[in-house]
Every structure is written in structure tokens, then in C-alpha cells.
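Notes to self, Methionine--tRNA ligase:
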Amino acid sequence: MRYITTPIYYVNDVPHLGHAYTTIIADFLARLYRLRGHKTLLVTGTDEHGQKIEQAASARNFTPKEYADKISKEFKNLWDKLDINYDIYARTTDERHIKTVQAMFLKMWQKGDIYKGEYEGYYCVSCETFFTKTQLKENECCADCGKKTSIVKEESYFFKLSKYQDKILKWYEEKEPILPKNKTNELINFVKEGLKDLSITRTSFDWGIKIPKELKDEKHIIYVWLDALFTYVSVLDYLEKGQNYDFWPAHLHLVGKDILKFHAIFWPAFLMSVDMPLPRYIGAHGWWTREGEKMSKSKGNVIKPMDIVNAYGLDSFRYFLLREVPFGNDGDFSEAIFINRNNAELCNELGNLLNRIIGMSAKYSNNMLESKDIKQHFEKELKQSKDFIDNALKFCESLQLNRYLEELFKALAVANLSISKYEPWNLVKNGDLDKAKALISLCANILAKVALLLSPVMPSSMQKLSKALNYELNTQNYKKLIEEDELLNFNLSPCENLFNKIEKPLLEPVNLEVKKEEKKIKIDEFSKIEIKIATVLECENIEGSEKLLKFKLDLGDGDIRQILSGIAKFYKANELVGKQVCVLSNLKKAKIFGHESDGMILSAKSGDKLVLLSPNDLVKNGSLVG
Ligand code: MSP
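result:
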């Protein structure tokens, strides 16, 4: 049994490339498992409670439920358009979910894992996460997303997360549940630093699930992460031991790296508290950027999945997402690379191979291909392609999906290369028709196997291909072709091109262009900016901050200032004394980390580093830059 989940997506905004990515991976795996004959369940859905949704709805003049209905529908529509074959679509506003969450909360309470207290600290609404002051970035900003947090002081129920610290560590060690494995160390360090008990109810707003009535404390609603995580269980009708009950424990929770902590620390602790078995794997993927930049609404560069699909077709899109980035790493959506993969891999190596096989079988064997002579002539090629396919399947188990596809394309290369090497047209010319036919048949068999394994990635084009070769993409053929290494005979028919060559980029870079225009300023706006050359008189580290250096600077004409700059990771304080730097000198004063800062020292971003800007020659302090 294989139960796979996507994250339960927030309905604060419409779905984007990141959501599509996780869901397409999940759909690929579920389709592959079904093909291999596993009983499989794929669950996705929407996370509809919490302050973030309440705020998003009210900003648009909707009630939270109206807004959730609207966005949840958009997610569902997108999944239909992306050919996501999910089994259940869960919503956290569903009645059965609400009941399950309350029942689980009660269980945790009865177990003695929940106690009442008062929470005082910081809260990031965007991440729906609590922080202590020391965990925050400068200016009380969220350690994860960088947005401003708010101070929360209210009565709250707490979950004894600390009690589960050692058990969680043991789970990591014994089961190695985190994929890719190299993400485990970060978690171990985090847990070892000490887990604090978790505030799991709020009272200052009410868009959420009320705590169980048995606690007689109506004003508390349940923390949205506890609520959302239990979707994975409520959707199975777990409490009633419904028909999907047996799917627990999940085989794989797929998540983005930003929400790994919730799934790999909070979730197992909650499950242990209610005496439920833990999921087998948690797979965390990286983030997508667009042409090297983080996607965000304010930059106007968010990719809408359907824009790509409408321009280039669904299967190319699904293929690109899985092929381009090693699972776990961040990846960049570059249109040029997308086009290159479509043309070189999908059109040439895959689509064209089918065309060649169809063409040659029509010419030399009346559309009928028999497998009987393949082994005699092409044992080596058969073995090579089998090895690549076996490798592919191994990579898939550890979610190395790009390598899965890479190996499958290596198997296709065996077919393509053997055509150029043995030249069937010359074999025929030289009177060796049987060998020519065996060669075409070898290629058709390799293609049939690969297409079977590509069908979970590109369902509709592989369906077309299977029609052309006249075989079924089903479990029976999976067993025959992949597990038992049988060879098939084919009766071919013509087929339209599987993929089309893309001649030029089709995506409108409108948003980026608009944004670039918006970023442009008029000369009179620039003249407001005052950048001056200054010499560093003193420089020291700031206690408690890894990032900040405190400078005393001479800006000429007796203008001596204190400025803080976040470059401590890149420069030693004492190296900088005597150096000249550029200072934005008419910036409003600010307090950073309790110290006054009067201006900004300019530096250039180079990858993850910051490099100070200095004049090329010594100039007078106070000289204007411009
Ligand atoms: N509601 C929670 C999940 C609860 S699961 C019990 C949530 N929702 S979300 O809608 O904000 O995020 C869903 C997923 O989108 C996360 O896995 C996140 O990593 C992913 N992504 C958001 N932006 C992304 C990219 N730019 N690239 C790839 N994935 C990204 O968190």
C-alpha cells in the first residue's frame, strides 16, 4: 500500500509554480506505484483556517469561508488541467476533518501532553509560526520568510513537544525517514538545541477549529498547523476506521523545504502523542526561482503554471519540472533551458525515435515487428538498455527523479545510437533484411519499456505512443516488460508528432518588463539620493549579532557618524579601519539591534556574499557620488 500526500495548500492566494511542482511529483509517483501494481492513494487539498486566510479574505472583502471556497476551487481546477490523478481532495473546513482534529486534541489532552498557560512571543502570520526574540532576524522579522512579525501575548494551551525530543531523534536514526537524506543533519541539530513546548491554541481571532467542548474553553481555537497536519489522517476516515483506514501510515509526505520542520518535528510528535505509527518518508524539495530571481508578487515574476502549459503543452512542462532539478535542490525556471530540453530530448531523442521506428517498419516489414531475432543480433544493446532502466528504478526509490529520467533517456540513446551504427537501410541493401528487422524491433522494445516508465510523467503523449506501437500501458505489461524482461511483437500504426519543436520563446515576459519599467526613476528622483565617500574611523562587532558591524565614519566637514552594516560575515572589523566606503548619507536614522544607525554603507551582492564599494583612488571625505 502506498499513501502519498502533497502539502495541504493555504488558500490565501492562487496556486503557482511551487504548488504545481510538488503536486506533479506526487502525481508522478502515485501513477508509477499504480502501474507497478501497488494499491495507491494520492491525497491533496487545501488548508483553510488561520489568521493568514482570515486576513487575506478580509482584505478582499470576503468572509474567510467564501474566500476559501473560491481559492480551493482554483486549486482543484488547476489539478484537473495538470492531469493530476488524485484520489481524495481534502479541505480543512470539511466536517469530518474538524471532528478528527478535535478528537485528536482531546486524546493528546487526556494523555497529559497538553497544558494551559500563557504565550508571550512573536508570531509570523505569513508562516503561521511562533518565534522567540532570539530566533528573529533584525527588526523583529521572521527567521524564515523575513516578514515583520507581531507580538502575541495571550492565554494558550501548550503541547509538550519537549517530551518527544529523544524519540524524534531516535526515529531519524533508526528509520532514516527524511529524503534527501542530507537534510537530516539540519533537523538533528535543530532538535538537539532543545525543543520548546508548542503553543497550540489562539484566542485573538476565531477563524479556526474550536478546542473540544470537553475542555469547556470555547474561546480557544486550534493552531493552524496542528489542524492542517491532521488532514493526512482525517481524510482517511481514520477515527471511524473507514475504507481508507489501512493506508496509514503514509508512505510519503511530499513537502517543500520551508515546511520540513513542521512535518519532521511537530507531526511525528503529535502522532506519537495519539499513539499512531509514523509516516515512512518525508521528502523535501527545494524552491523554484525564475531566471535566477526569487519569485514574488512584488517583483511581478511569479510563474502561473497554465501560462507555460498553454504555451508549450502539459507534458513538456511536467517533464521539465522533474528533469531539470535534483530533488531537494533549488531550481531555476529558465525558458531557454526549457526550450532546449523540449527540442533536444523530447522531440529528437524520444519523438523522433518513434517516427523512425514507424517509418522503417512501414518500409521494411509491413508495420509488423517481431522480436524473435533480437537476442541473436543485439544481446549487448538489450543488456545495456536494461541496465539503464534498472538504474532508473533505483534512483526513483530515493526520489532522485532527475536521474530517473536521465537513465531512461540513456536507454533511448542505446536505440538511437544503434540505428546510426548499424544503418538498417544498408543492412537491407546488403541483403540482411532479418537483421534490419531485428534492429527496428530492438528499438521498438526499448522505446516501449521507456515509454511505460515515462507514462507517469507524460501521461497523454505516452498514451499516443502506446497507440502507435499498439500495446497497453498497464500493470500487466509493466510486469512483462520491466520485471520479466519479455520482448513484445508490435503491429504499428502512424502517429502525429508527439512533441513539437519550439522555434522561439513564447512566454510573454510582460510582468518582468512592466516591473523593470516600474523600477525606473526620473532624474529628479535620483537627485534626492545623496551618496558620499567616507573613511572608516572605527569598526567593531556587535555583541549578540553574527551579521552586524558598527562603524564610526568621517563624512568630511566634521560630519562624524555611527552606521551599522550587515557585513560581519564577510569582513573582519579591524581590517576595515582606514578604508574608504560609499555611504547613502541622507537616509532617515534608524535603530538597529538597539544601536542608532545614521545612513547606509553600500555594498554589492555577489552570490551569497556582500562586497563593500570603495572609490578606485583616494578621494576627499564627503565627495558626492553620482
Ligand atoms: N498550508 C501549509 C502546508 C500544510 S501541510 C499540512 C503550506 N501551504 S503553502 O501553500 O504555503 O505552501 C505549499 C508548498 O508550496 C510548500 O511545500 C512550499 O515549499 C511550496 N512552495 C512555495 N513556493 C515555492 C517555490 N517558489 N518553489 C517550490 N515550492 C514552493 O505551507
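- The CA atoms of residues 9 and 188 lie 26 Å apart.
- The domain at 523-624 is CATH 2.40.50.140 (OB fold (Dihydrolipoamide Acetyltransferase, E2P)).
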